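Moderator note: this is an archived Q&A kept for reference. The question asked for a predicted structure of one protein chain; the sequence and the answer are reproduced below.
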Amino acid sequence: MEKAIVIGAGPCGLATAAALQDRGIEPLVIEKGCIVQSVYEYPTFMQFHSTPDLLEIGGVPFVTPNDKPSRREGLEYYSTVVRRRGIRVRTYEEVKQVSKRDDGTFAVHTEDRHGIQACYETANIIVATGYFDWPNYLGVYGEDLPKVSHVFREAHPYVGRKVAIIGGRNSAVDAALELYRAGADVTVVYRGEELTENVKSWVKPLFLSRVEKDKIHMYWKTKLLEIKPNSIVVSRDGTREELPNDDVLVLTGFRPDRSFLQSMGVQTDLETGQPAYDSETMETNVQGVYIAGVVAAGSRANVIYIENGRFHGEQVASAIAAKELNQPV
């Protein structure tokens, strides 16, 4: 019988595991992909928005000479945390179902990538799943064409091609600049009339300069209507336009999956999409089920990230440790 099982080995899940260790509880972490799969899914040459100290977990220093760590440094850092802390992580094993028993404990049913099934028993469940499996689809005709992607990894495959980027946040701006430097013909389609305040301050001037010089073609206040094999159809100021196009990157963000929590009986607000939980303990309306990281956010998944989500683990660990001792949190 495990005292605690953490579902998800992202930064927030690992932070929770480390916090539990600090309180004498050795958790088991189950991850359907690799360690910090969410970071692995970032663009190949991405740099974090945050400084290293704001990404640290488990009391392990994030040592780098760079003000903003790279994706590769992030992967190395979080892997180092797992090794140094001796955190037990079962990778490439997906939790298929969690059922609550009459005695209040849980049965966690899993399946690995070879189809081998297993079942674990635990007193506490911490759901720390991310959101990169669930992109925000536009629902436009042609979005399922092979030339459409909801993720951007690197620019090389798009050299010399006409690429349309849908969106106007950090991921879209970063991709546009990298694609331009690689020699792609870049068009950005965005519903807004200006970039959001969240776009990195050191990147925004570079992007706007390229737009002003028409090196990146910017379509403000424009809606994507349709994607065709060799073009896209947009609406700008009520006027329908068809633009030649080879590839489309729909970089409109992702959303957490609520269905897994709901299958365990966790209530979700219909308007905000936010799970029901105690903001001090992170325990949901289902006793013994806790959440950590972006899964605690509502529809606005960008309000929780590594910088603040990593502290959820301390709250969860304190609550579970206090319960073990039958003390108030």
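Archived answer notes: The longest helix spans residues 71-85.
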